[in-house]
Design a protein that fits this description.
10 helices; alpha/beta; 6-stranded mixed β-sheet; 4-stranded antiparallel β-sheet; single chain
Length: 385
């Protein structure tokens, strides 16, 4: 049976990869395809759209409307391929040496394809499987909360949620949280030889980015040696920056985006408090010199961490399916698992592939991992029968 499920999942994976669902794009074509697929199997689904209806989450219950079901969740969006050196078309699944290459094969359309391929098995179960596919996970876990809220309100209470991020099919019970902030700096343009007549937004932005770099260094130097995370400390990185129009003009505008990833015991607001205090003081000084100038910090996302709390039974259940007898694990990436846990669902992370292959050129999912995922789906169907 595993061969049949894996073959069906390969076909589904090819369809899913063909949709360029980079987070800057709409995911509606993929969602429509999944809706049609589920409809062909007699399964109704529900969209939860964003404000302008350009993107959508999708959830569906396969099997009877009773309590005790299992949520299988994955995000539909992927990271960009811009500037990466791909050896094959990233939007086509290409197998080389037992590896399935393509953007999203590992993170995490492989898991979604396996869950969809198992729908015929899940339909006959005594307990339901609730499929949950989100948007905009890659830019701060923005899409899932509205879907999770609706699922918590409308579904018969599930027993647990499995988030299929790549873990090499190991059971993960903890991940870091993430906050993403954008810093906008407005200066006052002047000729670059007359610095006393203007205010360079770039120079202010560089000063603030230096402060963040020092903050990141301090987090590293004061890492908790007992932390199970790798790296053990909270991490802060500046992922995007832009500013200025010409070398001889004092920049009017600069902006940059940074993310802060914290273990469950670390408060991101406490870490950023000194930085935000400096921004407030600097903003006042700049506006005093030029009324239109200033600095603003906008939090774009704030996804909570996941902890082992309340997940012992869920962990034991998933371990029985995977045969994982190793120690409990944690991961340093952020995920939607913390959001499911925050909504009251017992939650673990478990999926095929390695995070080390995610976000890379020539991203891949090993065929062996894909087949282990297929076996997992079959065991899950048997457990719910």
């Amino acid at each position: 049976m595993t061969d049949n499920l894996a073959t069906a999942a390969r076909d589904i994976l090819a369809r899913l990869i063909a949709f360029d669902t980079t987070s800057r794009n709409s995911n509606l074509q993929l969602i429509a395809w999944v809706e049609d697929y589920l409809d062909q199997h007699g399964v109704s689904s529900t969209r939860v759209v964003n404000e302008d209806a350009s993107k959508a989450n999708l959830y569906a219950s396969v099997g009877p409307a009773v309590e005790g079901g299992i949520i299988l969740s994955g995000h539909s969006d992927v990271v960009p391929v811009d500037g990466q050196d791909w050896q094959s078309n990233p939007w086509t699944v290409t197998e080389r040496d037992g590896l399935l290459h393509g953007r999203g094969t590992c993170d995490m359309k492989g898991f979604i394809a396996l869950a969809l391929a198992a729908v015929p098995l899940f339909k006959t179960g005594a307990k339901p499987v609730h499929l949950a596919f989100s948007y905009d996970e890659e830019i701060g876990c923005l899409g899932a909360p509205a879907m999770i809220e609706e699922m918590a309100a409308k579904l018969p209470k599930p027993a647990l949620a499995i988030i299929g991020e790549p873990t090499m099919m190991k059971v993960i019970t903890g991940h870091k949280g993430i906050t993403v902030h954008e810093v906008e700096v407005l200066g006052h343009e002047a000729h670059s030889s007359l610095t006393h007549l203007g205010l360079s937004a770039n120079m202010v932005a560089v000063e603030l980015m230096h402060d963040l770099a020092e903050l990141a260094r301090g987090l590293w130097e004061n890492a908790d040696p007992a932390s199970p995370f790798i790296p053990p400390h909270a991490t802060l990185t500046i992922g995007k920056m832009q500013g200025g129009t010409a070398p001889n003009i004092l920049a009017r505008r600069a902006h940059f985006v940074f993310d802060l990833r914290c273990p469950p015991s670390v408060d991101p607001e406490a870490i950023l408090a000194p930085f935000k205090a400096k921004v407030a003081a600097l903003d006042g000084e700049m506006r005093g010199a030029f009324p239109e100038a200033g600095v603003t910090v906008t939090r774009l996302s704030n996804a909570p961490p996941m902890t082992p709390a309340g997940s012992a039974e869920a962990e034991a259940f998933v371990r029985r399916l995977t045969g994982d007898n190793g120690p409990s694990g944690v991961v340093s990436y952020a995920a939607e698992a913390g959001q499911f846990q925050q909504a009251g669902f017992a939650t673990v992370i478990c999926g095929p592939g390695s995070i080390e292959q995610a976000h890379q050129p020539n991203e891949y999912l090993a065929v062996e991992q894909f087949e282990r995922g297929a076996d997992f789906m079959e065991r899950l169907a048997e457990a719910l029968a």
